[in-house]
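Re: your question about NAD(P)-binding domain-containing protein

S., sorry for the slow reply, the queue was backed up all week. Below is exactly what I fed in.
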Amino acid sequence: MNILILGATGRVGGQLVTYGLQDRHHVTVLARTPEKIQINNANLTIIQGNVLNKDDIVRSMYGIVVVISALNTDGTTTLSASMPLIIEAMEYEGIQRIITIGTAGILQSRTTPNSLRYQSSESKQKSTRAAKEHHKVYEMLKQSTLLWTIVCPTYLPDGESVGTYRVEGDFLPENGVEISVPDTAEFAFSQIKSSDYLKSRVGIAY
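Result:
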């Protein structure tokens, strides 16, 4: 399968590239700084470009079946600014499936009906800036024609792959505190073969 991974130079993105190649898929990555990707593999195509450049996005989509975005907020608006370009290019190319890494802040609050966690007392984050960026992406995906899944980890230490964790549609699993980077990437990657969480958010925690 031809998979495009965005945000491949980040922590989760790097793991996604590894899983994709281990599973014998053809992996394409779009990266501003390709030299950060220290992998040499015949099944890996690295395209130098920027997710904020429409032409670069379109170029990277050629022949792709699934898009996985591990773009993070990075203190900027890159996440929300790039998503309209990604959605437009996917719809134009006829690519339906996108899996993105979000944040537990955009899951539903258990304590405050009709609110998201970052808008309620459930969230322990002092800053809501990152959650607001992810919220914008969630709203854009809802309005698109795509088959999307947003994987929403809580606190995300590097850690080891444990291989067992809890997931729950639209909510963070009860008393979920953390989930490692490798396990988050593993679950996100597994969604390319799953239709369990189409057009929905899914919380993940130990």
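Helices lie at 11-22, 54-60, 78-93, 129-142, 181-190. The two ends are 30 Å apart (CA to CA).

Happy to talk it through on Thursday.
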